[in-house]
Design a protein that fits this description.
With 222 residues, the protein is of the alpha+beta class. It contains one helix and 14 strands; from the N terminus they run αββββββββββββββ.
């Protein structure tokens, strides 16, 4: 039978273990657990801040506005191309072309219009590309005299130079830039440097289609 002294001693020994040994592990566990809670709190706080930032930026993006130009274009325009010098070249669906030049502060809304050289043919709804040399290529036209014809605008000389006859009646056509700087169309590749057409395997039914150049330089047509 245990005496009260023995029981008191064993109880004191147990308390000492909690204080000296096991309690140290418990304290360390509490420290680790508390650190984990703090780290988790910082993680969730960061996530909440990030989500709030995304929501704010989404709202800011959705809140964009349209600003009218201070100087309206001289004609109704239907095709606009951003040139390498930062100006915008626009056609009116006939033979006429115009350039919008931003002001000295880079503002397009305060930009000014100038008239460029007229093209050889009229064209509406056609293929157009800004070439790697800075010039502009157009070909075809669902409406106008440009059906089955192409020409290139020289941005340095302000003149239009006709391409050879592609031999295809391109109308509402598509074109995309190839990695070598040439252009691919439905039935041909236009060789920019030599101003020549190279026949390729024809794609069928590409009038009024959508072409999208993918990151690997392949072309998706829909």
């Amino acid at each position: 039978m245990k005496t009260s002294t023995e029981s008191s001693y064993r109880l004191q020994t147990f308390r000492n273990r909690l204080t000296c040994g096991d309690n140290a592990e418990i304290a360390e566990g509490r420290k680790f657990y508390g650190k984990g809670i703090r780290e988790m709190g910082r993680h969730w706080l960061g996530l909440v801040v990030m989500m709030v930032g995304l929501l704010i930026s989404g709202k800011a993006h959705a809140g964009g506005t349209w600003a009218p130009l201070l100087h309206q274009p001289p004609a109704g325009l239907n095709n606009c191309l951003l040139l390498g010098d930062g100006t915008v070249m626009c056609g009116d669906g006939n033979q006429n072309w115009y350039r919008l030049t931003p002001d000295i502060h880079g503002s397009y809304t305060a930009g000014t219009w100038t008239t460029l050289a007229a093209a050889h043919d009229t064209r509406l709804f056609y293929a157009s590309q800004v070439l790697t040399n800075g010039n502009v290529f157009v070909c075809g036209g669902e409406y106008g005299t440009g059906r089955g014809k192409g020409e290139v605008y020289s941005t340095t000389q302000n003149i239009w130079v006709p391409t050879p006859d592609p031999g295809i009646g391109y109308s509402d056509a598509e074109s995309k830039m190839l990695p070598n700087g040439n252009l691919v169309m439905e039935h041909d590749v236009y060789d920019v440097a030599n101003n020549a057409w190279i026949p390729v395997d024809a794609l069928r039914g590409q009038g009024e289609a959508c072409w999208v150049k993918l990151p690997d330089d392949s072309i998706l047509t829909v």
